[in-house]
Amino acid sequence: MTDQSTSDAFDFRTYQRAAARTGAPIATDHPIVYPTLGLANEAGEVAGKVKKIFRDRQGAITDADREALTMELGDVLWYLSELCTRLGIRLEDVAARNITKLADRASRGVLLGDGDLR
User: Fold this and answer.
1) In the chain, how many domains are there?
2) Is the Cβ–Cβ distance between 84 and 94 less than 8 Å?
3) Which ranges in 21-90 belong to alpha helices (H)?
4) pLDDT tens column, 42-95
5) Is residue 79 part of a domain?
6) Which range marks the domain in which residue 18 is found?
7) Phi and psi torsions of 27, nearest 5°
8) Does 1 map to a domain?
9) Per-residue pLDDT tens for 10-48?
């Protein structure tokens, strides 16, 4: 596979297909268990790195931090993509629906607050 990390042609559909080819079969009682737990684990690793940026350097983000976070966020993206694949959901649909939802909330002035059905 060519390096498309800087290519405009590298979209969610391309990513999801490529990610699906890199997964290994894992024995669980349901196909969504592994990617769900992996997603939570990797999101926790992102949170841990951000926590240390604030704990150790009062929020000053270094190039090394950006690189480490880029790697961890890539892992988050991979597990999200795998979860979508196993649920039969296109990653691009998740992204598009999220933007539509946020634009609707913004137009109604309810971006802040809580509750899924704002």
Assistant:
1) 2
2) yes
3) 33-57, 63-87
4) 999 999 999 999 999 999 999 999 999 999 999 999 999 999 999 999 999 999
5) yes
6) 13-87
7) -80, 110
8) no
9) 899 999 999 999 988 888 899 999 999 999 999 999 999
Is 111 within a domain? yes
Q: CA 47 to CA 56: how far, in whole Å?
A: 14
Compute the residue count for the chain: 118
How far is Cα 53 from Cα 19, in angstroms, rounded to an integer? 29
Q: What are phi and psi of 93, to 5 degrees?
A: -70, -40
Residue with tokens 């969610």: 12
Which distant-in-sequence residues (6+ apart) come within 8 Å of 38 by Cβ?
A: 75, 79, 82
Q: CA-to-CA distance for 24 and 34, rounded, in angstroms? A: 10
pTM exceeds 0.70:
yes
CA distances to 31, 33, 64, 73, 108 from 24, in Å: 12, 14, 30, 20, 44
Instruction: Judge if 83 and 96 occupy the same domain.
Output: no
